[in-house]
Every structure is written in C-alpha cells, then in structure tokens.
Description:
The structure is a homodimer of 537-residue chains. Chain A has 537 residues and is α/β, with parallel strands linked by helices. The first copy, chain A, has three domains: 4-189 and 349-423, 4-Layer Sandwich (Metallo-beta-lactamase, Chain A), CATH 3.60.15; 197-344, Metallo-hydrolase/oxidoreductase (Rossmann fold), CATH 3.40.50.10710; 444-533, Ubiquitin-like (UB roll) (Roll). Chain A contains 15 helices and 27 strands. In chain A, strands 8-9-10-11-12-20 form a six-stranded mixed sheet.
Amino acid sequence: MNMYLYGYGPKNNEKFILVDVGVAFPDMESSPGVDLIMADPTYITDRADRLEGIFITHAHEDHIGALGHLFPRLQAPIYCRAFTAAIARNKMERAGQDPEMVREIGVWPETVEVGPFEVGFVPISHSIPEASALVIDTPAGRIFHSGDFKIDTDPVVGEAFDAKLMQEIAADGIMAFVCDSTNVFSPEPGRSESSLPPAITQMMREATGMVVATTFGSNVARLKTLAQAAVDAGRSVVVVGRAMSTMINTGQSTGVLTDFPPIVDLEDSKDIPRDQLMVLATGSQGERRAASAQLAQGKYRGLEMKDGDTFLFSSKTIPGNEIGVGRIHNMFAQKGVNVVSGDDRYHVSGHANRPDLLELQRLLNPDLVIPMHGEYRHLREHVILSEGNGRKAVIASNGVMIDITNDAKIVENIDTGRLYLDGTVLIGALDGIVRQRLQFAMRGHVVVSLMIDDDQGLIDGVWAEGHGLPDARNAKNGLDGLLEEAIENDLRKAKRGALSDDEAVEMIVSRASNRVCKTAIGKKPVCTVLINRMVAE
Amino acid sequence: MNMYLYGYGPKNNEKFILVDVGVAFPDMESSPGVDLIMADPTYITDRADRLEGIFITHAHEDHIGALGHLFPRLQAPIYCRAFTAAIARNKMERAGQDPEMVREIGVWPETVEVGPFEVGFVPISHSIPEASALVIDTPAGRIFHSGDFKIDTDPVVGEAFDAKLMQEIAADGIMAFVCDSTNVFSPEPGRSESSLPPAITQMMREATGMVVATTFGSNVARLKTLAQAAVDAGRSVVVVGRAMSTMINTGQSTGVLTDFPPIVDLEDSKDIPRDQLMVLATGSQGERRAASAQLAQGKYRGLEMKDGDTFLFSSKTIPGNEIGVGRIHNMFAQKGVNVVSGDDRYHVSGHANRPDLLELQRLLNPDLVIPMHGEYRHLREHVILSEGNGRKAVIASNGVMIDITNDAKIVENIDTGRLYLDGTVLIGALDGIVRQRLQFAMRGHVVVSLMIDDDQGLIDGVWAEGHGLPDARNAKNGLDGLLEEAIENDLRKAKRGALSDDEAVEMIVSRASNRVCKTAIGKKPVCTVLINRMVAE
C-alpha cells in the first residue's frame, strides 16, 4: 500500500505532492472480513490545503487501489500517464468521485509544474504498461523516484529500459534516488520478458490437451507473450475472467498493447479441439472467486479441465498465498491435470534484482539512496547494499520524515497507521473493531440476556447462548444450561444493590461465563450481556 | 496428520494395525481458535475390538501428536522405539492415559507379532532420532512402510541409511512399498546432514556479535551440528526454549544423542562476551510464543539481540508460515540484527528427493508403490514418477481402501474427516462450530434481545448491539439505534400472532438487521436473537 509524500518550503508552510495511493489485501490472520487495507493519510489530510497534486507511477493496485476511497480526503489533481489514467478514472467513478480530476501527462521531457515541484514521468520497464519513474525537481535539487521497475531492454510491451535516458536525467546531479527494494535479496541479474517465448511456446506445443495459463491480469506483456506462444504452437486463444479482459481492452484502447493475437469467444471455442486451445485465466494467486479457482473446483462458464490438460502458473506466488495456490494445484491434480508452477522458465519478475539496483545507482550516481517498497528487512538490506557500493543511504520506514537537503536527517516521526475498508466504511486498523472479530473467531461468543425489575430482582431467569462453541457433552442441558444456572446463581448471590449497576452485572456474568466455559470446554469466550431493565408503569 | 490403517483377514472380520497418529496445526484461515487437528478415526473406533496395535514410526508431531487425545477411542498397545517411546509416554501421561501402554521395540531383525501381522522397525535416516521404516509381514506378503525418510549415509546423529539392509529385507520380495512423497517435486539428490558443519562453522566464526540459531527442536542432529560448529568457532552454547531442552534431554537419556557439546546456563552466560556466544532458540516457524519471536520483539529471559548480532534460520519455512517468519525477520532487521534465512548452505531437508525415491525403489524392487505423505499433487506426481520408472503405482488418498493382494483395486471409500481439539473438546471439523466463528470473523455479530408478553406485544422496545462492526457515522444513535428502530418497527408491523413463533420473530429481526447493516455499513452480520417471553404470574 504505497504512499509517499514529498514536501518543500518553510516549516509548517510546506507544499506537498503525494506519490501513489495504493492498497494492500486483507487476510484471515489479521484482518478477517476487511475489504481493502490502505495507509492512513491523516497527516496529509490535516494539510490537504497544501497538497498540490497526486502522482501515480503505475496502475498496480498497491499503487493506485486506494485512489477512489481516499480522494474525498485528499482533493488534489491526479497526474498519470494514459494507461494509468484509464484505470484511475475508473476507480474515481466507482467511488462516486469526479474522473475529471485525473490528468494525463506525456513522458519526459514533458513535465508538469505543481507548486514548487516540477514533475516528469520517465518510462521504465516493469510488469504493467507505462510504469514510470518520476523526476521531481525542486529548488533544492532533483529527486529520482523509481517506482516499481526492472531493467528490461526488450520488455515485449511498452518502453524498454533506457540507460542513456537515465544518464541524461542524472547529468546535472541527483540529490536523492528513492528506489524499489522488492528484489534486493535476489542475487542474479533480472531476466527479460523476451526470454520467455521460446520455452513457453515449446511447452504449449508439447502439451497434449488444453492449456490454461494464469498470470496477473495487469501484466499485459505476459498475456501477449502467452497468447503469441499459443498461436505459434498452433492454438487458439480464449480469455476468461473479467479483470483480464478489462486489462487487455484498456491496453488496446490506450494504444500500449498492439499486435495482440486474435481472441476467440469462449462460446465459439466449443468446436475447437482441446489440444488446439489455450485459455488465459485470472486467479494466479489462488483467489477463490477467480476463473482459475473455479476451473479447479469444476467448471467456469461451461469450460472444464480434464485428464491430460495442462495448467500453467506463469507467475510467482506472493508470500501468504501459498496455501490458496496449493489448494488449486491439488484440485487440478485430482482431475489429472498437469500443473506447472514455480518454474522459472515460464516467469520472470517485474522487479530489479540486486545487481540491477546497483546498475541504476551507477547510471544515476545519486548523492543519497532512499530505499522504498518492501518490508523493513528489504529496506535495511538495500541500505547495506548501497553503502557497500560506497553510497550514502538511509532507511525511511513508515512515518519517517527525512530532510533530504540536510544530510538526510530524520526530522519527524509521524504517527502513521492503516485504514481498513470494512464493507463501505473506512475504519482505523486499531479501532478495535477487527480485533473484536478476531476474538470471536478465536474464542467464540457467549450472549446473555437478563431482565431485571426495578426492585433489582431477576425476572424469569437468564437466557444464555454459546455461539461458535462446542457443547458441554456431559451436562444435561448442555453448555447453555450450565451457563444459565451459574449466572443466575451468581446474580442471586450478589450483594444487595449490585444489580442496579450495569457494569457490576456484566462483571458477574462474565466471570461466571469464564469459569463455566473453562471447566466445561477449556475455552474463555467473549461474553456479551444484554440487560433489560423493567420499569413499573 | 498421518494415520494409516492396515487390515488382514476375511471381510468384516479383518484384524487391524494402525501406523502413526499425528496432528496438523490450525490456522486463522480455516480453523481459528482450534488447538490441534487430527484425522477422524471413526472407521477404526467402530472396529476397535479388532485393532491389534498402534505403531509409531517417529516422534514428529504429525506422526505422534494425537496419540494421547485419540487413545481413549483406540485402546490398543502402542509400539515404538526408545526415543519415540519416551515422547509417546509423555503424551499419554499428559492426556491422563496409561503410559504403560507404550512398548519399546528394538530394531530389525527384532519383530513383534500382533494378530496376523509381524512388524519390525527398520532404522532409516530422517530429521529426528530413531526414525524408522516398518516391515509389515502378513500371510499375503511383505509391506515396506517408509515413514518419513531421506537417504543420508552420514546423518550426524543416529543410524545411517543402510542400502544393504534394504536389499536384504527385499530379498524375498516386497508386495507393496508405501512411501514418503514430501519432496517428490525436488529434482536434485538430497544432501547429508554432515555436509553442513564447514559452512555453519565458517559463518559462526565470521559473525561479529552474538549468534542465535533456530531449527526444529526435535532435529537433535541439527542441534548438535549447530552446537559443535559454535564450539569450533570458539563460542559457548546456550539453549533457550523449553521444547528444545526437552528434546536434547530426551535424546541424551535415551542414548541416541552423544557427545553433545557442553551447554552453558543462560544465567551463567552473562559474563561471556557476546561474540563468544551461540544461542539455540525455539521458533523456526515464526511461532509467536517461541523464544525466537520473543527475542525479535524484545527480550527473552533477559537475553537481547543487538545491532551487529546474527540470527540464523537453520530451517525451511513450511508453506503457510511465511508471514510469521517474515515478521520476525523484519523485527530483527529493525534492531540491526543480520538475519540469515532460506540459505541452503545452512539447512538440508529431512525428506528424500526425487532421485532418492527412485533409489529406494531400486533397492526394494517392490511389486507396487503406494505414495503417502503430502497433498494430492505430491501423491499424483509420485505415481507418475514411479510409472515412468516402470513400476505399478496407485494413489491412495484420504479414506481410500486398497486391496494390495488384488491388483491394488480400490475396494472402499471410507468417509474420513478431521477432528479438532477445541479447548478440551474434540469436535468434528464440519460440525459448524468453527464455521460459525469464521462467520463472526468475516461478518461481525448483531445481538438482539426482546421481551414479548403473553399478549404477543413487545415490552419496552428492543435491545440491539453490533459487535465487531463499524458504527454508522451519520446516524444520531449509531448503528445500534438504527437497528433498534428498524427491528421494533418491523415487529410492530408484523401479522397478528407472528410474535408467538420464535422462528418468525428471528426471521423478521434478521431481515431488518441485514437491511439496516447493508445500507449503513455495507455488511451483513450474523444475527442472534434472544427472545424473553414474559408469562403473567
């Protein structure tokens, strides 16, 4: 969930620009039921009147996904290139925001001036069209913000990495190089997208049945690589999954994707022999609702994989998604489908590896390296790598504000955090809402309803229900019966007057619930008490 | 959670032996709050009078962990070797079962006769002491059950893999070879434990500060490798984490672990310079409560890691644990600790790789290969590998009963499933209990309390509380207020007599809750209704 803030000007009167407004995805471990995770922009929204512009480097969700959700708090013009702009407008529209706030910018040497900043988009190779580095000029000097990038001089779709352009940009000096760190632990030089076609074509030629391939929908270069390999292997190309079709259409309508092989409608593919078909499907990360998962479980829109077919993950499994991807693999194995997964012949990364990071440092020759993208361990490793290369480098972790003009000193530690989109509401990650849901998941929930009359007497006993809890097998009336008996007993024994105080009642009930459940089932559930106080009329 | 059942005899009067009684570990994704997962032994417990014995191949939790929990349902003598027996007795005692049911057996050619079976323990190399394959002789022929194994002719601790012994055992023919499949996707021959010391020693020599190393506590060979490397690098050895100390003690007391370097008490290590210390710590899989995680967060029993220290994962991260391990890595990185992770120089697997599987097939020359251990995709790949090697092989997935004597025909598909240890209660994975907890985690919980008098009238309105839910920000009385208003309204509008039926009331309330929450916060929570019916006295 990338979000970077640059400021220039006198203290407390700086002007700002924001680079990228991304999301991260929830998991059951920490954020069950949450729809999206994004950075908490409170520091920026408190200064939104001084935010001059929002720049989006490329259209991956971790760089653009929060745009629609956070725009109401940011309210500044959005600048990006054409392909990114198409996606950005869509995000704005779906969030009920004005898509006209998105402004298309051409590539360097074109620039846009916003406040004290002059910003240009430098084409750089990655795994989505029109990925860009940013040149950010300020009166104090030039910043080079790499965005996500790799060094690919033949990327199949879009602009090649242009070493000469980098050197030209750096000719008058780079004050700070803010650089992608994702693959800092990968020791070998990265490989080009154009290294894949021979192996993929051979695989598709040798496959005996239908081939289904998945990758990130936004990696239109890979989609083209896969489709062209299919055609070269004598197969027709079908695309299933809405996200993938959308990306291909966006690529074609914005002119970045050309010469894509003809796509056959799924309906029209029924007459084509299976061994002459190659299907591109969404869901490379094991997402349960995507086409790949549905194919693994059975059918997707009438399409079914069979014994002898081949399923290709032309992708890397993102840490955390191994179980989901493995589940798909197992389901396909049960159908007799050959699954090809984690094979470097059929996938290259979109990020610069260790030697590539050093190569771009060499081309830019910056005064300072500030690693970004990645967890703390990546940032630290990138600093060590840079210092080993004789460069000054500094770790800027979440919330750290650095004065680039003043020896890279840390000048402020800003409270940052996460916002969750939970249903349709933005909540703070630490609001306790999701924490409570996690408690229910771990411990179950005992719900107790009481009626107390105005003489502080219990009316008609107590209702107690355990939810998400095993029953107490040896108890005649089950766990609920044990709970009711114990709670009633404890309440009747309570000191005179205690029942007039809701908190005291809750305490008595919770203690009884903990005691009963610990003994009967070995758990201490969350306990909620609903107190109905009857008033004589 | 391994559990294998062998039977011999006329239909419906077979005698049985059980091999291994393991557990799997829960995760938030599918089993939040669960303590342990084990196979549902219903088919066996229905025939427990014909269960002649339980054989445990080795003491890893996925082979022995359910012994104490399921023994009450199985009630048969337990056979294993001395090291495994020490652990088995401990499991029995902690579950309140009789440890005397555990019987120590020596190694092949010693055997034990149980019913129509004669079973022997064959030493085989793995990553825990006294791991054993089983020779299971029946009147119909000999079965070789590999257990977990690797081919290691110099395993540092315990017996080396003995090819000649395997050939001797196979001399009169092997009817079926039931074989570990864990590493069937690993193409290179496995490496020996004894290949590690030079690299580990060098690393510990070059490290500038304290070194902390983690691995599975039961891998006492690795513990010895690490400890000896430390001593060779001039470091004293400290052990932190109870599980690790227990394993070392068990290894020493059962005689399998000898010549372990001297261990210094943590308290006595305070005077030793940091660069002369090597600490063995539990928690190689990122477990939150283990010593490694606590060290990463701060201190563990006064021990603290500092800038320039080194933390070594001498282990592989099990799929599903990547996030937890990454979290530890990041926390250490923030302290300036150098983390060494996923480096093959410092870890070897305990399982046979693809060429090793073929090698043991060659030595045993079985009539039939039945892959075990691993997910369906592993079993399938193992069958394909075996068939490619000219052998008959068959997939026996969970619940599949195969007649080994009759062309490996599938003769029955037994309903199998999982039991969860939830607190102190064994529940079925599909009982709906955990499913309900997952629903709470995803959707939150609305709890409603009503009082209805015997004229079917609502008394004093409705109590509603949303738990684990965002509030409705624009509503004066919040989400709870909106819920109460809507529920009261709907109940008052309900058909005359509807309120006399609990189910009808619950339906009306749930619908109102869904409608209100969907509109106000975009979620549909679980809804629980507690109906208090007042009876005139």
